[in-house]
Design goal:
Oligomer: single chain
Shape: globular
Helix content: 10-25%
Strand order of the largest sheet: 1-5-2-3-4
Number of helices: 1
Structural class: mainly beta
Strand content: 35-45%
Largest sheet: 5 strands, antiparallel
Distance between the termini: 21 Å
Length: 91
Amino acid sequence: MAHDRIHARPPHDPENWREGVVRAVTERDGHAVFVVEPLHRDGGERTDAGRGSSATELVVTFAVRDLVVRRLDEGDPVGQRVWFRRRGEAV
């Protein structure tokens, strides 16, 4: 299975990544799932009220989840900023 990608710190090539805020971290089918709300390119949060959620689910291994959580400034990843790419997605 190909997995999505997520970073807790700004990547060296930010033009190839999207920025977002973690809304939840869950588990499904033996994988970790980050629910991330993408940010606008200007750094502001999207507000899609009335049009459904624009949240993105990122499926990663437990090892990647643990690494991201360890590298975040605070213990709880919810509400923290991350950088991500969905598998096969062009930014």
